[in-house]
Design brief:
about 100 residues, mainly alpha, 5 helices
């Protein structure tokens, strides 16, 4: 729930920048919020995931929800979430 409120606040701030005529600033904020594998935060979240003892027991939905929480306040698109879950599975799931 908390990550949803933070996301809402960030969206409101971006909207306010647009309404003030600061579309370039709003675009920079929007772009900053998007996670990518090349960002430092991606590795930080992977490192945090290594401490998760429940990952292999969770469904894809639970893993998705947990990943979104870990990435918050950044946003992650569906394709990148799939990549993250595959990486998590390869790191943590017993064979």
């Amino acid at each position: 729930m908390q990550d949803k409120r933070l996301e809402t606040m960030q969206s409101m701030l971006i909207t306010m920048e647009k309404e003030r005529g600061h579309s370039e600033k709003a675009a920079r904020w929007s772009e900053w919020r998007k996670i990518s594998e090349s960002r430092r935060e991606w590795q930080i979240v992977l490192d945090r995931l290594r401490t998760c003892r429940s990952w292999e027991k969770w469904s894809v939905i639970e893993k998705t929800d947990y990943a979104k929480i870990l990435f918050s306040p950044l946003t992650v698109d569906d394709e990148l979430l799939k990549v993250f879950i595959r990486k998590g599975d390869s790191m943590l799931v017993s064979n």
